[in-house]
Amino acid sequence: MVRPVDRCRVCGRDDWLDVLSFGETLLAGDFQDPADPPGDRYPLDVAVCRECRLMSLRHVVSPEKLFEHYLYVSSDSGLITGHSRRLVEHSVAGLGLAEGDLVVELGSNVGAQLAMFQEAGLRTVGVDPARNLAAAANERGVETLPEYFTTAAAVRVAERHGPARMVLGRQCFAHIDDVHEVLDGATRLLTADGVLAIEVPYLVELLANNQFDTIFHEHLSYFSLGTLHRLFGGHGLRVFDVWTAPVHGGSIVVFATPEASPRPTRPVVGEMLADERARGLTGEDVYRRFAARVERVRAEIGDLVRGLVAGGATVAGYGAPAKGSALLQACGLGRAEVAFCTDTTSLKQGRLLPGSRIPVCSPEEGTARRPDYFLLLAWNYAEEIIRKERRFLEDGGRFIVPIPEPRIVSAQTVTA
Ligand code: DWN
Ligand code: ZN
């Protein structure tokens, strides 16, 4: 069910710089039914490989436990939808994918991204181990294999559908322990000029913006471009382009292609690698300073919320993201401080957040209960949410935006 990480999954070395320990915590995505017994706790410690600078959890919880019945449905927020569309547009206009070309997505969730590729005339196959989500994707006409993206699965897709012009993995590559198996599968599936596009939360953003709540058991790896560049290179895949994207707290989309592919390598790749070195990612101080800031910010968030509640205010959570569970646990906040959480995901409504057992309700129900403060657990959508909830602010409500530092947003101070 849980195993320690000794050897680095990227380079194989066993030489770690310990960065942070959250103790034994509950699985952030393990929303519970009221009748459920409390879930199990697992060690949540993160360290950096001194050889390749992968930041990694030091323990792996079995993927069967984490992903085979998954409650996260790709967000339909404007931010995510816009980003998904840009990826399709770029794949056709920028990467030359043509009508009838095959796009295979690992971690394809309910098929929202692949449905957009279908609208652009591309053939698609999804691969996702979450049976409940794969079933929903197949329902909507996005063929999806309910399994992990292994080499064997990739070979089967190639046998049935031919080679792929693109293999895409958005916000799932950081969840995968055997990254070499995935890359081996991708290289067998891709055409000679094919594109592997991998989107992950960006380690530089995580460190710079104190995003400690992104550290939970689903996220095994926290990648820099440098580590991905080395990892892909070991599989004969050349990184030829990289995007930054304002999703999930700040992500990168790394585009790679077989070494001999005619696709030219853009200068931004070398520039970002140099920037990472300049920020000290190959050193140790940047991680120590991050850890010190996290200890301070965790305490400040907890003290702020406890102080408001002690003063008679009611505080509720806005959004019930997995990272919200991680944040509440890390800040020692529970049902005594946070009365409920709202969330647009129907799968989450009526359930309880792991550990704190804070009830999740619909946004409508939550707004009707008129809390004095919403703790913005889905802070990565702050701009969109604050704009949407202007009425709550104008009626005197306030948001507590916890990351990168806790700040209170009112109708008078709103800048988003
Ligand atoms: O890597 C992962 C990312 C991509 O998604 C997964 N491990 C799990 C998941 O992480 P998360 O749950 O922190 O993702 P989100 O997208 O930040 O979750 C936002 C939550 O907030 C969703 O449950 C939807 C909800 N929400 C809401 O209630 N009202 C979101 C918006 C925009 C809103 O207006
Ligand atoms: Zn390593």
From TrEMBL:
It is an enzyme of class 2 (transferase). Residues 8-67 form the Methyltransferase putative zinc binding domain. GO terms for molecular function: methyltransferase activity. GO terms for biological process: methylation. Residues 246-404 form the C-methyltransferase domain. It holds the Pfam family Methyltransf_14. Keywords: Methyltransferase, Transferase. Its EC number is 2.1.1.-. It comes from the Bacteria. InterPro entries: Methyltransf_Zn-bd_dom_put, Methyltransf_Zn-bd_dom_put_sf, MeTrfase_14, SAM-dependent_MTases_sf. This is Class I SAM-dependent methyltransferase. It comes from Actinomadura sediminis. The lineage of its organism: Bacteria, Bacillati, Actinomycetota, Actinomycetes, Streptosporangiales.
